[in-house]
# Entry
Amino acid sequence: MKHRKQYKPAPQTHPSAFLAVPSYHRILVKHGLIEKTLSNPDAYAVFLKVGADPEVQKLRHKVVLGNKMKHVPALYLATAMALQAMTKQELESLKLRIEEERA
# Structure
C-alpha cells in the first residue's frame, strides 16, 4: 500500500514592509527615479509628473491601446510597462526632467 505524500500549506507570514509601500512608490524605486526613503506623498507627486511626461504618455498610450486597459489600476500598470520599455538613457533624461520640475 502506498502512502500518500502529505502537503503542508505554506506558513502564514505577515506582509513585508516592502508590500506595504504603494505600487507607484515601488514602480519609481524599481526604475531608479526616486530613493526608497522618499515619503509616499512626495513619491505620488513624482509619479504624477512622470505620468505627465510626453515620452511616458506616448509609450503608455501604446500599452493602453494594445491591451484595451481602461480602469485606474491599469494606468499604474501601463505606466510601469512604459517605464520598463524605456532605455537607460531615456530613464536618465526623464529623471533629469523630473528633477528640474521639482526644483
